[in-house]
Amino acid sequence: MTAEKTERPLLQFAAPRRAKPARHLADLTMPERRAAIAELGEKPFRADQLSRHYFSHLTTDVASMTDLPAAAREKLSVLLPPLLTSVREMSTDAGTTRKTLWRLFDGALVESVLMRYPDRVTMCVSSQAGCGMNCPFCATGQAGLTRNMSTAEIVEQVVSGARALAAGEVPGGPGRVSNVVFMGMGEPLANYKAVIGAVRRLTDPAPEGLGISARGVTVSTVGLVPAIGKLADEGLPVTLALSLHAPDDELRDTLVPINTRWKVREVLDAAWAYAAKTKRRVSIEYALIKDINDQEWRADLLGKLVKNKLVHVNLIPLNPTPGSKWTASRPEDERAFVRRLELHGVPVTVRDTRGREIDGACGQLAAAE
Fold first, then answer.
1. Which of 28, 53, 26 is nearest to 39 (CA)?
2. Cα dihedral 264, 269, 270, 276 in deg (nearest 10)
3. CATH number of the domain located at residue range(s) 22-79 in this protein
């Protein structure tokens, strides 16, 4: 593949040009923060103090930053502009699953979900407002792409969840975010630069970032092959989740239209190369759709494609969107699919269907709004 061809897909799926959100501390590396603060006429070490307030104390209230001189607080507040406004919040599972619909500065809508389990707290975040991948069973895909999110807009979703946990607003007492999955609205690798920036802010140690383990971060993709290769070279041991949804090109061309550009074998080869380079197990995401992709012969084909690889198959009972012809597989078909994969020695689990009562599938709240 030539260098020219490698770059084209990343440009092809770029969002339309729009006004950008205000520059935020979380958009910047620590050296960039120091330079920005020096430009404001303050000492560069103030960057460490401001970063500690945002990433460790989880606050943007400059009035509470009493270690900063009053005059400096006013000037530095420009690096902590408001990014997300809560429009709606819904909860289920006795309050331990919370979905929030956010409005961005330009009116674009995105969603995030906080899920608290006994041993961890996972945040599912959006990376784009809408999505350009056009998968027909996905509410976000049917909405189309509005724009890419900035690094700070992505990070602020996690920081907002962390604030709620630290304040004891989520049942179970004060806690912290341990896992982040880029499985909300958007195709993360189509917004590559901002997503990598966000991953680094999330995983950088305090006060540079939130200090979440990179092994607790999962980046999903429908299979942008050049970007998968690029991600493998970042030196970030995050989990790659490949949204496959069909093991054969004929069906995947329909379910995941990007497959007309990169076929199943090519996408899987990129995933195996990622696993070889990072030593991280690849997660194969497979939404089970009634009478569409849940046949036993397709389970056999999937098993043959992925057996003996550093892989785990994550079967997802489809969370249907209102009015859609696509719906979840019958329980007996789901069980048969699991059995066929297990016969091939493939590690497989069925994802917990949290959030169904609150329109948990990405894009559903935004579509309703």
1. 28
2. 150
3. 1.10.150.530
Cβ within 8 Å of residue 20, ≥6 positions away: 150
Give the number of other Cβ atoms within 10 Å of residue 238's Cβ: 23
126 closest CA partner among 350, 309, 314, 363: 363
Which residue do the tokens 């460790």 mark? 56
Residue 323 falls in which region: left (phi positive, over 0), alpha (psi -120 to 50) or beta: left
Rounded Cα gap, residues 300 and 277, in angstroms: 27
The ranges of the chain annotated as CATH 3.20.20.70 are: 85-368
- pLDDT for 17 equals 59
The pLDDT score that the predictor gives to residue 321 is 75
Residue spans in the chain of domains classed CATH 1.10.150.530: 22-79
Check pLDDT > 60 for residue 112.
Answer: yes
In the chain, % of residues over pLDDT 90: 86
Residues 164-211: tens digit of each pLDDT: 999 999 999 999 999 999 999 999 999 999 999 999 999 999 999 999
Q: Would the pLDDT of 26 be above 70?
A: yes
Q: Check pLDDT > 80 for residue 353.
A: no
Contact by Cβ (8 Å): 158, 194? no
Q: Which residues pair with 201 in a beta bridge?
A: none
Binding site, annotated residues: 131, 135, 138, 186-187, 220, 243-245, 319
**What is d(CA 155, CA 246) in angstroms, rounded to the nearest whole number?**
32
Q: Are 79 and 345 in contact (CB under 8 A)?
A: no
pTM for this entry:
0.92
Binding-site residues for [4Fe-4S] cluster, in ranges, read 131, 135, 138
pLDDT of residue 361: 55
What CATH fold (topology level) applies to the domain 85-368? TIM Barrel (3.20.20)
Count other Cβ atoms within 10 Å, centred on residue 236. 17
Residue ranges of the binding site for S-adenosyl-L-methionine? 186-187, 220, 243-245, 319
CA-based diameter of the chain, in Å?
69
* Positions marked catalytic: 111, 362
pLDDT of residue 19: 80
Cβ partners under 8 Å of residue 152, min gap 6: 21, 23, 24, 25, 26, 27, 83
- Residue 256 and residue 223 in contact, taking contact as beta carbons nearer than 8 Å: yes
